[in-house]
Write a structure and sequence with these properties.
CATH class of the largest domain: Alpha Beta
Strand order of the largest sheet: 7-4-5-8-9
Low-confidence stretches: 24-58
Number of helices: 11
Number of strands: 9
Strand content: 15-25%
CATH architecture of the largest domain: 2-Layer Sandwich
Order of helices and strands: EHHEHHHHEEEEHEHEHEHH
Radius of gyration: 20 Å
Shape: globular
CATH topology of the largest domain: GTP Cyclohydrolase I, domain 2
CATH superfamily of the largest domain: GTP cyclohydrolase I, C-terminal domain/NADPH-dependent 7-cyano-7-deazaguanine reductase, N-terminal domain
Largest sheet: 5 strands, mixed
Helix content: 40-55%
Mean pLDDT: 85
Distance between the termini: 47 Å
Length: 248
């Protein structure tokens, strides 16, 4: 049995996968197996969060909504009062949207936008905003990513890099894994001389609960190839990050 994603999520998946002018009919019509991942899913996500369900879309929605009602009652609220009556459905729709990255097809995202080019200097795309969900508390973390690579005769279309970030950010994540997934994706697709990724983010699980320290920023990095083996390459990357971006 196949489940179709809600229309607003299918549109979001198509938005991540396709460029303006590309046909997104296939993306909007594509069925999703179970409640799970298409190719490019997160490592270790092939279990309950990956394939496992095969339930009809209505039954999935009902289960999520029932669970939200249980949570509301557990914390002492009345899920039938006016302000909360639509909350279970809204939460279901919200999580479907925030985890749409599980359903993005990496091949459709790249869509042949890898080009042979005689260029071997560093390419840097920075200040890429993202929003994700911490898998430990289901609270948001958000910030900006910087991605760099040194081509080995192959470059990728500029807009694809923010889309790659978006694909992995719209999943349940930890920042360390998100950083590594972006770097690995580019390394496997381009076979470049090196890849570097740096992410800075604020985590609401550290602001709203636990240690409760507003303003705390977490920085993670992943370096492959020349970015790992050559100090001056890594230093060049970091110097690009230190420069202010042009005013928009």
């Amino acid at each position: 049995m196949t489940d179709l994603l809600p229309e607003h999520v299918r549109k979001l998946v198509a938005e991540i996968e396709t460029e303006i002018g590309e046909s997104d009919d296939a993306a909007l019509a594509a069925p999703i197996e179970g409640s799970g991942l298409r190719s490019g899913g997160a490592p270790g996500a092939s279990g309950a969060a990956g394939r496992g369900n095969g339930r009809a879309a209505g039954r999935v929605a009902g289960r999520v909504e029932d669970a939200v009602r249980d949570i509301l009652m557990e914390i002492g609220e009345d899920p039938d009062r006016e302000g909360l009556r639509g909350t279970p459905d809204r939460v279901h729709r919200m999580y479907a949207e925030l985890t749409a990255g599980y359903h993005v097809d990496p091949d459709r995202l790249v869509n042949g936008a890898i080009y042979e080019e005689v260029y071997s200097e560093m390419v840097v795309v920075k200040d890429i905003p993202f929003y994700s969900l911490c898998e430990h508390h289901l609270l948001p973390f958000f910030g900006a990513a910087a991605v760099a690579y040194i081509p080995r005769g192959r470059v990728i279309g500029l807009s694809k890099i923010p889309r790659i970030v978006e694909m992995y950010a719209r999943r349940l994540q930890v920042q360390e894994r998100l950083t590594q997934q972006i770097a690995t994706f580019l390394d496997e697709r381009l076979h470049p001389q090196g890849v570097g990724v740096v992410i800075e983010a604020n985590h609401l699980c550290a602001v709203m609960r636990g240690i409760r320290k507003p303003g705390t920023v977490m920085t993670t990095s992943a370096v492959l190839g020349l970015f790992r083996s050559r100090d001056r390459t890594r230093a060049e990357f970091l110097s690009h990050l230190a420069r202010r971006s042009p005013a928009g």
